[in-house]
Amino acid sequence: RRFREFDWSATPLGPVEFWPESWRHAVQIILDSSFPTALAIGREHLIYFYNDAFIPLAGASRHPAALGLPVPVAWKEIWNEILSPRFTHTLTTGEPTGEADLLMPLERSGYLEETYLTFSFAALRDDKNQPNGIFCTAIENTARVIAERQINCLRALAARSSLAETPEAACQSAVATLEANPRDLPFALLYLLDKDGKKAHVAGTAGLVSLPRGVTETIDFADTPSCAIARVAASRTALLMDDIQPLIQGLVRTPEVTPQQAWGLPVLNPGSEHLAAVLIAGVNPMRPLDESRAFHELIANHLETAISSARAKQHVRERAQALAELDRAKTVFFSNISHELRTPLTLLLAPLDDLLARTTLEDADRSLLEIARRGGARLLKLVNSLLEFSRIEAGRIEASYEATDLAGLTTDLASVFRSAFERAGVALTLDCPKLPADVYVDRDMWEKIVLNLVSNAFKFTFKGEVRVSQRALGDHIELEVSDTGCGVAAKDLPRLFERFFRGRTTQARTHEGSGIGLSLVHELVKLHGGSIEAHSEVGVGTAITLRIPCGSAHLPAERIGRMRTLERARIGALPFVEEALGWLPDGGSAAFGPESGETTATSASETLRADDAAQAHILIVDDNADMRGYLRHLLGGRWQV
C-alpha cells in the first residue's frame, strides 16, 4: 500500500511505470518476501525501499520516514564507514559483498545502539544487465553475539579467578579479564573491604588509564559516609550513579563507549555481615540499562565466589604456616632444652657406665643401674634427634659423603635387630645384594635412616616379616623397608613424614614416641638428593621406599670426604636395639620377678594387715618394659603382681 501510494514521481527515479522492468520485478519480490529485504534503487541516487520484515531491523525512527530517501540520508550514521565502501564495490564490479555479525551502531531507539547484522549486498541490475542499485538481505544477531560475548567473559572470569591464592590476586585476575570486554564493561573500579567492613581500597581497575578525578585509593567510611562506595556498603544494594561522564572523560581506554552512568554493586561475603567488595561498573551507553545491570550483577556474583575461594585458600595457607611456625617453635624449644639436657645426661650416663663396669655389684643393684642407663640412653637418643633437626633447619648440618659399600652397610645396620626379631617371632629378611659400584652417602645419616625405618617396622609388626631390600635401578639406588604389620590409615598416610605427627594405630608394641623418627628420615634423604614415599593398607602392612641418586654430581663438592669405618656407624645402633627389646613382653623386666628380693620402697600400703595383703593383687599395664619391671620390683615383695 505504501509503495502504491508513494509519489515516486517526486523522486529522481520518476514514475514507477517508467522504471526498468528489473526494478519492478525486484520490488515485487521483496514485497512478497517474509525475509528482511531492502533496495537502494538508482546508481546515482540510491533511493531507499524496504519490506515489512525489514522494519524492526531498521528501527521505528526510520519507518515510514525513510521510505524514498537516499540511503546516505536514511542511514547516515553508518553510511561513510560501513555502507559506502561496500556499495561502491558492488556497483563498480557487480560482485556481491557481505559479512556475518558486523557491528553497526544504529540510531533506532533515541540513542546510538550497538547492533550486529549479517547481510549481503547484491547488484540490482537494469534492463541492460548493468549494476544500477543494491539488493540487500539482512538479519540481526545482536542478542546472540552479546550473549556469547558475555558468557565467554564470565567463563574466563571463573577460570582465571579460581586460581587466585589471595583476595587481592582474585581481584587483579578479575579486572584483567574484564579489561578484555570494554563494550559490556567500559570501565570498572573494584574496591576490596577490610574484615571489619569499615574501610575499602582499590584492588583493581579495568578500562581506565588512571583513576577518575576525585577518586581516592583508600576510603574510610567513617570519614566519607555519603560517598557511593560507603552507601553501597551500608545498604548492601545496587546504586545507579548518573552524570559520571565529566569524571571519566579522557580516561576510558575505549572512547566510543564512554559511559554516562555506572552501577555500584555489592559483592557479598558469605558468612559475614560485611561486604567483601564493591564493584563500580560503567554502563555501556549503546545498550539498554537493564541489560547492563543484569550482566554486572553476574560479574558481582563471580567476584563473590572468587574472593571467598581465595580467602579460604589464604586461611588454609595461613593455618599451615601457623602450624609450621608452631612446629619450628617446638623444634627451637626442644633444641634449646636439648642443649641444656646433654650436660646432665652426660653426668648421669658416664658415672652409670663406670659403676656397671665394676664386677662387685649385686645383681639387683646392677639391674637398677641398667634401667637407669637405658632410660638415659633413650633420652639422649631423643635429644640428639632434636638437635639434628635444629642443625638441618639452620643449614648447619655437617655432612660427609663417602664412597660406601652400601649393601654391606645396610645389611650390618639392619642385622643388629636380629635378636629382637627372633625373640618376637617375626622374620627379618635382608635382600641387599652387592651393588655395581660404591654409593656416596653420609654414613652417620644413613645409619639413622636404616635404624629408624627398621625399628619403626618392628614396632608395628607382630607376625609375618619385615623385609629390607636394596637394589640399583638405573641411575638410582632404591631401599625399601616393608612389613606385614597393622598398616597406616589412608587419612594419616599423607602426614606420615610430618614432624611430631603420630597417627592412631590399631596395634603397636608401644605408644611411646615423639613423632620425629620418620620426619628425620625424610630430611636426611633430601640431604642425599633423594625422595621417599610410603604405601600402606590397614591390616596388610606398610612399605616405605626411598631412592637416592648414584654418583656424586648431585652432592656439594666440598662435602665429599674420606671413608669412615663401619665400627663408627655401629655405635649409634645400641639405643635403637635396646629400645626395641624393651617393647617385648619380657623385655627388661626379667630381673625383677616376684622372687627378686625384698623391696626397699615404703608406702602407706605397708600398713595393710598381713591377712589382707596376702589376698591383694595388683595389675600393672604399661607399654615400657623397664617401667613394668621397676614397678614389679617395688611392689612384688608385698603383693601379688
Short description:
By secondary structure, this protein is an alpha+beta fold. It has helices at 2-5, 21-32, 55-58, 71-74, 76-93, 142-161, 167-178, 228-235, 245-248, 289-356, 363-393, 406-415, 418-424, 443-459, 517-527, 566-570, 573-582, 610-615, 625-635; strands at 37-41, 47-50, 97-107, 112-125, 131-140, 188-193, 199-206, 218-220, 239-241, 262-267, 277-282, 401-404, 427-431, 439-442, 465-473, 476-483, 531-537, 541-549. It is elongated and about 145 Å long.
Sum up the structure in keywords.
six-stranded antiparallel beta sheet; alpha+beta; 641 residues
The number of helical runs is: 19
The portion of residues assigned to helices is 40-55%
What amount of the residues lies in strands? 15-25%
Low-confidence stretches: 563-571, 588-610
If you had to describe this structure to a student in words, what would you say it looks like?
The protein has 641 residues and is α+β, with helices and mostly antiparallel strands. 41% of the residues lie in helices and 19% in strands. The protein is built from 19 helices and 18 strands. A 6-stranded antiparallel sheet has the order 8-7-6-11-10-9, sandwiched between helices. A 5-stranded antiparallel sheet has the order 2-1-5-4-3, sandwiched between helices. β4 (112-125) and β5 form a beta hairpin. α10 (289-356) packs antiparallel against α11 and α12 crosses α14 (443-459).
